[in-house]
Automatic annotation (TrEMBL):
Transmembrane segments: none annotated. This is Fe2OG dioxygenase domain-containing protein. Its cofactor is L-ascorbate. Keywords: Dioxygenase, Iron, Metal-binding, Oxidoreductase, Vitamin C. InterPro entries: HIF_prolyl_hydroxylases, Oxoglu/Fe-dep_dioxygenase_dom, Pro_4_hyd_alph, Pro_4_hyd_alph_FE2OG_OXY. The lineage of its organism: Eukaryota, Sar, Alveolata, Dinophyceae, Suessiales.
Length: 674
């Protein structure tokens, strides 16, 4: 950096460099990751904020001070602690404003420089331009505020950005997690370890909905997050001589204008789930499910002490709810609620008391509420920041299990599969054959028994105990819907696979999805199947809290559309995992349910579901040993299996064979943990 290298040119008058001993911890051959931030009123934990970015391996921080006189002491402390290689300080001054005029962003923002967000955007563009100069060159740039931290995945900062560059990523948008303090603190990096999960990551289950509502009912605007929920990004610095980056959003640092090449090359990645991108108008981005990407996040600590909240709104005053001449409208939110609460009163003591009450009602958690919200999945515990700062070394978030994505890639080879096919086959144990499962007086015990089987074996087969006439009606409706069915297809990472490409794609069933075909509802053509689909949904929702408490630590987040399948004579489906690739999404399928509809099935007609259970080694090991357990597709039989773990196949059927299947998507409970 300038000021630290021999022969470096003297910096501009408004630029200052660190003069202390602590420099960056990245190596000379590492990818250089930097941060730009526009700062004001940083007295509380400025040095902790700087130290976090040093510990995780950032190369440089470009710090722009909006009101340098107010932060003079903080700037002096930081300068005397950190070297010019690690920090540089740009002071708001006529010289800096003159340099703004040379930016591509200037024409758009010049009328609005009294708006802090406008100044942020100009400072970001200014830093991005500096980052291409040889003496200040970096490879990637973040924009974060001084109440935000970037948390790398457990793999570390370098591994994360090496992965992005290997995939030709040039922009990555990260979801933000919002701090949920338990008491007032001016040092939340050390004291806060609970965070609200982004709304798109909360379970779409009754339990998840309760967690969302718990937070929403605390504010007038009924918001889940108090502030923003659309993430922050890092952008790859273009080569010198390329067009300057001119961001128009503090959240997405858009790359240069050659957007067609950018989109065609899938260069924009994000940790947001694919279904959220349409609402965010970001359909050009690629939703990533690999944990080396998904494991990275932004931690936001926006409201942790009433005095800091008062200082914020005392500075902002009666700010307008529109920005940039009306182009950006601030929606009803906690931000406006706090502004209005501040403006109601004229004396500082009353303002602070009222903001304290507002903050505690909207943002704080009691000990009892912590436990309940951890169970709903709206909150996670992340303590790696606190522990890293206390010990003075980067402590990666705990990785409680092997990378799920890595596990899912462990498909048996063709030779191993041929050997496995010769292993012993035996009838499966069917739970509750005498009494059935769906009986209210024994449902709780039955579901717990199923969870125990899923824990120990990865699958369970059970008898439902439904009336025979009900199953007759379901089979009749299924056969009447057969003309609407289409040939079954295997989808890997959201792409239909040609059967010749993969042995796991060989299948001989005909399928239709109930909701997709508009077949659900009591007045539709399949009321009995609709009822059974609802029953499976209810079972999944009731299994959810039990699976969370189990050793599996599995959290169901949503269900997929029910699928009706028919195997004609000779039809089969080769051995496969239902989710062998992560489904091309963050929340892949984790639980499969299959309900059979075939009354009085003749076992000589085959059609069994064969489930492989390893006894020595694991699936994917060349020398794995185990047995196949055979489940006859008889009406009233329900099979549950872990979709991402259990290898299974459908044996050739010699009579029409019908089944109703449903998949549940989910996360492992330690997702986002520390």
């Amino acid at each position: 950096m300038a000021g630290a290298r021999a022969g470096a040119p003297a910096p501009a008058p408004f630029l200052q460099r660190g003069s202390g001993k602590l420099g960056p911890l990245c190596g000379p051959s590492d990818i250089r990751v930097a941060l730009v931030s526009t700062l004001r009123d940083v007295e509380d934990q400025f040095l902790q904020w700087l130290e976090w970015f040093r510990l995780i391996g950032f190369a440089h921080l470009f710090l722009y001070f909006d009101d340098p006189d107010q932060d003079e002491a903080a700037i002096a402390a930081a300068r005397s602690t950190y070297s010019g290689e690690f920090v540089s300080f740009a002071l708001n001054s006529p010289e800096l404003r003159k340099e703004w005029m040379s930016l591509r962003s200037w024409e758009k923002f010049s009328p609005f420089t009294d708006d802090r967000m406008c100044r942020q955007l100009l400072n970001i563009a200014h830093a991005l331009k500096r980052a291409r100069e040889p003496d200040e060159a970096v490879d990637w740039m973040f924009h974060l505020d001084h109440d935000e931290l970037f948390l790398p995945p457990p793999h570390g900062l370098q591994a994360h950005f090496q992965h992005l560059e290997a995939g030709n990523c040039r922009l990555c948008l990260y979801q933000n997690f919002e701090a949920a303090p338990q008491s007032h603190t001016l040092t939340p990096f050390l004291d806060v370890s609970y965070f609200k999960v982004p709304s798109g990551r909360v379970s779409k289950t009754p339990l998840g909905a309760a967690g969302m509502e718990f937070w929403a009912q605390r504010t007038k605007a009924h918001n889940y997050f108090l502030y923003y929920d659309n993430g922050k990004s890092a952008v790859k610095i273009p080569a010198q001589g390329s067009e300057d980056i001119a961001p128009t959003s503090v959240h997405v640092l858009y790359p240069p204008n050659n957007f067609k090449e950018f989109i065609v090359g899938n260069m924009g990645w994000t940790t947001f789930a694919e279904h959220e991108l349409f609402e965010m108008n970001l359909t050009w981005m690629k939703a990533c499910h690999d944990e080396i990407v998904v494991g990275a996040k932004v931690l936001h600590y926006p409201a942790t002490h009433f005095e800091r909240l008062w200082r914020k709104y005392h500075h902002l005053g009666n700010f307008p709810a529109v920005r940039f001449g009306g182009e950006l409208v601030v929606p009803a939110s906690f931000h406006l609620e706090a502004r209005d609460e501040y403006l109601k009163y004229s004396d500082k003591t009353t303002q602070q008391e009222k903001l304290k009450e507002l903050l505690e009602r909207a943002a704080f958690l009691s000990d009892e509420e912590v436990q309940s919200q951890l169970e709903t999945g709206s909150v996670v515990s992340i303590d790696t920041v606190r522990e890293s700062l206390r010990q003075g070394v980067w402590i990666p978030p705990r990785q409680l299990r092997p990378s799920l994505f890595s596990l899912l890639q462990r498909r048996p080879s063709k030779e191993a599969m041929e050997r496995m096919q010769r292993m012993r086959r035996m009838p499966a144990e069917v739970l509750f054959e005498a009494v059935g499962l769906l009986k209210m007086e024994s449902l709780d015990q039955g579901l717990q028994k199923v969870v125990e089987q899923l824990e120990t074996r990865g699958w369970a087969a059970c008898h439902l105990g439904l009336h025979g006439k009900l199953m007759d009606r379901a089979r009749l409706e299924a056969s009447q819907l057969k003309p609407k069915m289409s040939k079954g297809a295997t989808v890997i990472e959201n792409r239909v696979v040609d059967p010749t490409e993969s042995p796991n794609a060989l299948r001989g069933d005909w399928t239709l999805f109930m909701q997709e075909q508009g077949l659900t509802g009591p007045k539709g053509p399949a009321p009995t199947l609709t009822m059974l689909e609802s029953a499976l949904t209810d079972l999944g929702m009731q299994l959810d809290p039990r699976l969370r408490r189990s050793r599996l630590q599995l959290r169901i987040t949503e269900r997929c559309d029910g699928m009706l399948a028919c195997y004609e004579e000779g039809g089969a489906y080769s051995a496969h995992l239902d989710n062998a690739d992560g489904d091309g999404r963050v929340d892949g399928r984790v639980l499969t349910m299959v309900m059979y509809l075939n009354q009085n099935w003749d076992r000589r007609a085959g059609g069994e579901l064969a489930i492989f259970e390893p006894e020595k080694g694991e699936l994917g090991d060349e020398q794995v040993e185990g047995k196949w357990y055979m489940v006859s597709p008889e009406a009233n039989t329900l099979v549950l299996l872990l979709a991402d773990r259990v290898l299974h196949e459908v044996r050739s059927a010699y009579a029409e064979r019908y089944a109703l299947s449903m998949w549940f998507c989910g996360q492992h409970a330690e997702y986002g943990g520390s």
